[in-house]
Amino acid sequence: KKNVLIIGAGGVAQVVAHKCAQNNDVLGDIHIASRTLAKCQAMAQSVREKNSLKVPGTVEAHQLDALDVAATKALIEKTGAQIVINVGSPFLNMAVMSACIETGAAYIDTAIHEDPAKVCETPPWYANYEWKRRAECEKAGVTAILGAGFDPGVVNAYAKLAVDDYFDRVDEIDIIDINAGSHGRYFATNFDPEINFREFTGRVWSWQDSKWTENKMFEVRKDWDLPVVGKSQSYLTGHDEVHSISQRLGIPNVRFWMGFGDHYINVFTVLKNLGLLSEHPVRTAEGLEVVPLKVVKAVLPDPASLAPDYTGKTCIGDLVKGVKDGKPREVLIYNVADHKQAYDEVGSQGISYTAGVPAVAAAMLIAGGEWDVGTMANVEDLPPRPFLAVLDRIGLPTWLREGEREERLDFSDSARP
Ligand code: NDP
Fold first, then answer.
1. Where does CATH 3.30.360.10 sit in the chain?
2. Which atom of ligand 1 is nearest to the CA of 88?
3. Topology of the domain comprising 154-347+400-408
4. CB of 175 within 8 A of CB of 257?
5. Fewest CB within 10 angstroms: 24, 175, 241, 309, which?
6. How does pLDDT run across 96-151, given as a tens digit for each residue?
7. How close is the Cα of 162 to the center of ligand 1, in Å?
8. So what's the ipTM on this one?
9. Whose CA is nearest to atom 43 of ligand 1?
């Protein structure tokens, strides 16, 4: 058993806390820490109320500013945490990683580090911060698993599975992320609007013909006919895993497509063109200084408040093209998740669910040894089958579509943690 410290108390952390509890026979004591103690206490309480603990055990809340490395180190030591799951804001990664390297605790996150002073990070994403610290992790023998959410995360494992089991040569991977759910509000973001809009206000980067290609947001549209969610429109978007998958697996074309409806794009475009997504303060006639984006955030629904009414499904997967036995091949490896089912089980919407469950699967594989590699790794550096086996068991099964054939993949012969 390995004790876990969860950093952050948002939608993803809520899922992580419940899933750690459901697997505390492998994972031991659970500690939850963020700046706001009350949020951590509410999460611990919800774990108790839903009877999520598999075996009797500890769930404790702590107040922590995770940018304070000494305080994070002290909390890791006090709680005896051997695994830290960082699902706080993306500004915390480097500080939390430092605390892990100094204490020897394993580190897991679900998104690349971002500098709050920048509008958005540009490629090469992992090489900007994380990969610079690989030698330090290796020297300290610290396991640091980067980007272990759904995308990045599970989609990286799908890419590795395709390379290992389905192709002799992979030429293209299109990662497709469609949320066909509905929250019933006029306009809302599924995550913190400040973080969410950052993803779409900058330039769009994809890896094509083995080089970075630049586009504008909402410039390149592609429509798909996907399992369960059906016909879906999506736009080329930049995403962390385009970098790591292209580099670590040597694939010449990796693109990321995010689904957006026309209504979302209209509202977003109006907000952006009016300057309401700006992080630069403006002065009103009355002499008040306000940051437009903060005002937009204040009037939009709190993303956590969407979960109880969310219905519908998500479909996220990798469309992989290449060659097998001298013939062209194309497969879609994907998962479908249900918003309402996620809410009933762990109190969060489906997108937080798909991000949080994989981070716990990664923790279980560290506890079980399969992924306790004692160095820094992206998900595609690690064996995918044990990961997909755990995910199948704890709520995120993997499906494969090839031509007319659709099947749920069976990884039960993979080692179990
Ligand atoms: P939220 O914005 O809901 O939560 C972020 C949490 O971080 C808050 O609870 C906040 O705590 C905490 N936090 C911020 N600053 C500090 C600090 N200095 N010290 C301690 N805690 C701090 O985010 P989500 O739950 O939606 O997302 C969490 C992470 O997961 C993000 O990095 C996001 O990018 C990533 N993600 C990854 C996905 C994937 O598939 N790979 C998909 C979705 C999200 P408090 O309020 O108490 O200050």
1. 154-347+400-408
2. 7
3. Dihydrodipicolinate Reductase; domain 2 (3.30.360)
4. yes
5. 309
6. 999 999 999 999 999 999 998 887 889 999 999 999 999 999 999 999 999 999 99
7. 31
8. 0.98
9. 355
